[in-house]
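Margin note from the TA: students keep mixing up input and output lines. Inputs are the sequences; the output is the structure of the whole complex. Example:
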Amino acid sequence: MSKDTSIFKASWTYADAPESTGHIQLKKRYELFIDGEFVKPVKGKYFDTVNPSNQNKIAAIAEASTEDVDKAVKAANKAFKGWSKLSGKERGKYIFRIARLIQERAREFSVIESLDGGKPIRESRDIDIPLVANHFFYYAGWADKLEYAFPNRKVKPVGVAGQIIPWNFPLLMAAWKIAPALATGNTVVLKPAETTPLTAMKLAEIIQESGLPKGVVNIVTGAGDTGAAIVNHPDIDKIVFTGSTNVGKYIQKAIAGTSKKLTLELGGKGANIIFEDAAIDQAVEGIVNAIFFNQGHVCCAGSRLFVQESVANIVIQKLKDRMETLIVGDPLDKNTDIGAINSSKQLKTIKDYIKIGLNEGCEIYQPDCDLPKKGNWCAPTLFLNVSQSHRIVQEEIFGPVLTIQTFRTVDEVIEKANNSPYGLSAGVWTQKGSKIFNLTQKLNAGVVWANTYNKFDPTSPFGGYKESGFGREGGLHGLKGYVKFED
Amino acid sequence: MSRIDVHKTYKLYIGGKFPRTESGRYYPLNDKKGNFIANMCLSSRKDFRNAVVIARKAQSSWAGATALNRGQILYRIAEMLEGRRVQFIAEIMKEGATKKEAETEVDASIDRLVYYAGWSDKYQQVFSAVNPVASSHFNFSNLEPMGVVAIMAPEEQGLLGLVSVVAPAIVGGNTVIILASETNPLSAISFAEVLNSSDVPGGVVNILTGNVNELHTHMASHMDVNAVIYCGKDENVISEINALASENLKRTILHKKSDWASNVCESPYFIEKTQEVKTTWHPTKV
């Protein structure tokens, strides 16, 4: 560590500022939410959900078997008749209600999200939960306006949507899935990730409170087997999955002989490109936000950094200095920048990739930071001296690990950025307008951030090119996956 | 003494050239009475793979052409087809259609090209959006072509079916490799001659003839193809295509129609099917 940054760090010591957990209500055990009721799993099996920052058990969670999934699908099918016939206006009002109820209990949701998933409270409080409520607000308003969304076409709902969501944005992904499905008149069987089921179960409580007709939303907890039971259920009309590309491919193959519709939001290896004429300090903040936001558990993370050669030294030095000031630790502390890695399994994956990087001969940099003894932690990590062929450049790590490459020309960086099977996101940093539009047009990615990164909004369609999946979620375009055209 | 007819040799159309199949294989095409019409190339996996390489090379400059330009080129195709209307009618009749059916099909094909020519600089306006995000950013979503599209043309209506799936794909900036109808292939290859004299850059449309059951697995599994379109009703073929497409998450598009003359077979939604949505963000605060 250089002398400068140690001075810097000494003056940046913060007192602990933990968010209170006094006002949250958690049960010891959570059941399945089927047909408007909380019901025990048929086989009576439960699994633990733990706090990744200290490995303590938070609650027992029901494990849904094929029989439970079948019950949920039956309930959703039964509810579909009434729900799809209900006028858009009335459907919308239920969704508005859910949005309001989430807003009212936003703080409780934020704390539980950070407890169960390990993300910094600053992020769950300021980003995840407000976006959740806004997502329901946004789609609530579409419910009675669908005829304006598809010019010259009448639409009808698809039917029962089976939705499988990941652990990186647990409640936000539930909102992304449920809100547009309900607005368009579908019913839902949702499976949260096994490491982060709590906020989804709290959402089930809100849904019950809202008076939403029974069976319109069913939430079944479990791991891969529960997900497979959803994917393979014959009475599900639509599968929506957010998760890894490998599982996405498996799903596309599994439903190949059926008439199920499919939306996939999968992995990514986002290129974040810094030109010499960028506002360098802003770009450095952008790099940090692109890769260290949510511990790098972000499918659209800017995990491949490309810096123009002429400014590489200064950008890398400033980035290292900035990393010295990042606070890694208690997710519930309001000063925390980087929280806990979501699970010990994911921590092992990340550590394995760091080993691979070292074995491939890449140069590693990690700031000098104190990691808590208990729990799952990973220091923010840079890899220098990497090239396109390195595995840490090609494969998604899903952790706070950034690879840095340099480039000289615009054409070179476009080619390098697009040289990936993924195509979810990209970032461009330059003060020159024509360069921005040149790049944003040529980068093969579904979301491109120019002079910003990792921004999300309910009105903004999100989704990938190539092996990052297909279909869009959010915005007007997010309605499409949940409707059929009437002939 | 009666004159000896000169038979036309039907070859493939790849990269703006007319090669024979590299496999040296062919299949004979007969009319309904069993009289020989022509030998058609029986394309191989290698022909398809060669065509993909060429379509990939042509894709970025075709997508980079202005919408106006792509529209003019589509209109030019229509003009050239109109000019050879009689030839196409005769060819379709050879394959067994009545004069009226053949005329209807050729006229509808010409009109469909004009229809999509007109869409070239409009579909973007219909399907794009400025998204009013709740932060100080300007945010918009617009369409971009998927890239290289492999198409298995409808078996019926060899010309109209082909035009109905090719025109919306290319007007949106995709390049295509299309396997023509096996039983009605004549006008597909003659259509290649139209394309070749219509300012369509080489490699934008590549046309193969052959057997769908031999080629569909290769078309669905090729790792450098972005989307695959299958026109037909064979559930086994559909299932195999969907399964193989998962290897690189190819987009699969299915058309189970049997009458391509109908009005529901032309709409900007056909263009949208081979488009991706890209969302771009930029801060608005200085």
